[in-house]
Amino acid sequence: MDLYKIKEPSFMKEMSIGQLEALSLDMRKFLIENLSGTGGHLGANLGVVELTLALHKVFESPKDRLLFDVGHQSYIHKILTGRAGQFDTLRQYKGLCGFPKRNESEHDIWETGHSSTSLSAAMGMAIARDLKNESHSIVPIIGDGALTGGMALEALNHIGDEKKNVTVILNDNEMSIARNVGALHGALGRMRSAGKYNRAKDDLEWILKRIPAVGGRLAQAAERLKDSMKYFVLPGMFFEELGFTYYGPVDGHDYHDLFENLNYAKKTSGPVIVHVITQKGKGYHPAETDNKDKWHGVGPYKIESGEKIKPADAPPAWSEVISETLRKEARIDKRVVAVTPAMVLGSKLEKFGEEFPDRLFDVGIAEQHATTLSAGLATQGMKPFLAIYSTFLQRGYDQVIHDVARQNLNVVFGVDRAGLVGADGETHQGVFDVAFLRSVPNMVVAMPKDEDEGQHLVHTAVTYNDGPIAIRYPRGNGLGVKMSDDLKTIPIGSWDLLKDGTDAVILTFGTTIPMAMAASERLSKEGLSVRVVNARFIKPMDEAMLHDIMKDKLPILTVEEAVLQGGFGSSVLEFKEEHNYLSWVNRLGVPDRFIEHGSVPELWDEIGLTEDNVIKNIKEIIPEKQQRA
Ligand SMILES: Cc1ncc(C[n+]2csc(CCOP(=O)(O)OP(=O)(O)O)c2C)c(N)n1
Prior knowledge:
The protein is α/β, with parallel strands linked by helices. The chain is 43% helix and 14% strand. The protein has helices at 17-38, 42-47, 49-58, 75-83, 118-131, 150-162, 183-209, 214-233, 237-241, 255-267, 285-289, 318-332, 350-355, 367-379, 390-393, 397-405, 433-438, 451-462, 513-525, 543-551, 568-578, 600-607, 611-628, and strands spanning 65-68, 138-143, 167-172, 245-251, 272-277, 336-340, 360-362, 383-389, 412-416, 444-446, 469-472, 496-499, 504-508, 530-534, 537-539, 556-563, 585-590. A seven-stranded mixed beta sheet has the order 7-6-8-9-11-10-15, with helices on both faces. Strands 1-2-3-5-4 form a five-stranded parallel beta sheet, sandwiched between helices. A five-stranded mixed beta sheet has the order 12-14-13-16-17, with helices on both faces. Helix 18 (451-462) links the parallel strand 10 (444-446) and strand 11 (469-472). The longest helix is centred in the first third of the chain and has 27 residues, at 183-209. The N and C termini lie far apart (73 Å). Thiamine diphosphate (TPP) binds at residues 44, 70, 72-73, 114-115, 143-146, 171, 173, 175-177, 280, 296, 342, 365, 392, 395.
């Protein structure tokens, strides 16, 4: 079928199962071909082809509300709702978003990116529906990984108690990004196998009932046996006890099984869970057989072999540099442990786990727990390193303040993917942590200029004994600088003069340093002497250096790949005001709006974080200095 012609999912209403199976093949072919060029979340989407088609056939979107948790698995939904033609722009600048987006389609009724939000949102929608006397289904689709997130469990607790009509689809592929973890994962596993056992028992009951004379009594005995055993054989008892009607386990690649259970679920009143078993990467040999987690999110690849198309000889990834340094530290200091909320692979902690299996803790998608767990470890003299993406640290903010910083505990935050992240877009940009961390008492916040300084900062952080410290590092690869063999301690709060100058000063850190250096070089050719400072400690700042700069009334430009509101530039302005200096301060950074997807250079261009703009700003502030002197 020509998927480009699809406008609305209603075209499937009259389709037979055979036709749907053919359509599923077309969908998979489309995904494999398109994503080989653009990259994207292939594995999860291949796994939900039949499930998404079945949901759109049984329910009537957008009247019925389909909410995709995390939203990385919404590609089939996007195709069915008329967006196949935009897939060549997937996750690219001004192109199709990789997550549900309300301004893309009326069928995207809930925007996601971070996990475990769908059940709370669904409950909110259910309450609103009932207050408005409307009637439609509300259908959150949540993975077994996302179900490990605390908010999802909080919502189950509420939905089960209020007995609202909410049809939860649990898409269980036994995977988070890597293999799923936790006791809940174990419980789902038991439901999967108990389901088969229970069905076998139902079959026996059916046969016995049909044997005349003895059948009825034997069937009664089987019924009693079933009742007495139900606590350990009935699948879904966990959910039933929470107030949900449980349907499953359902084969998520079998339309008969899907339709039977989804139709029951649709008619059932009160909260329902349909436990659907799917296979991540289904239908693409490399994704089915290769290490499946490698196919969760992919860049471009060769279709025949599955081989990834990567630039040759790229410098090491930042996460790799940081985790390798941590491994060195862990060899020296037994108190060093690593904690990750479901991001072993993203944070490149596999080798750490291989070398120190009892010192790596993957806690599932549980950023709040990961933060307070780290605090608990620190109270007992351990040295926890919490590797956490900047954007996901937002989830653990109260824990940062209440549990870690207030008790001034020695927790090291490895704030990964700090700055703009590119294709994942606005839900994932790591641009808020500077503002939200620098306002927390006791917190030290730093960002290295390159991988070598990165390893020294990790060493500094792990050996620091005065409270929490956050080391930020960006997504992607380092600069390819030479790494020193010995690790050194960098004095907390010290900045580094990279290039001297007498007309103006650029204060910057991390990813924007090369831009500042290049701008200063170009300005020197025009006769302007611009100092560049590596402000590697965002908090505390190098106050001695700042006093010197401001006493000289030098104009200052701050440059940061983070939000301007409450950011590093703001702290320089605060310093100036507190000490009554007259230095002119201009700031460049991320403006007060959400930044969508695109490549990082394109996004830098969009927000004016460019060499040209640095030069323009410097030229603006230099005459100001003359005027104010
Ligand atoms: C709060 C939060 N933490 C971490 C992530 C990163 N992440 C994206 S998808 C994913 C795994 C989700 O697993 P599951 O819900 O089972 O979906 P699947 O990909 O297996 O279909 C993770 C950890 C996230 N999106 N949000």
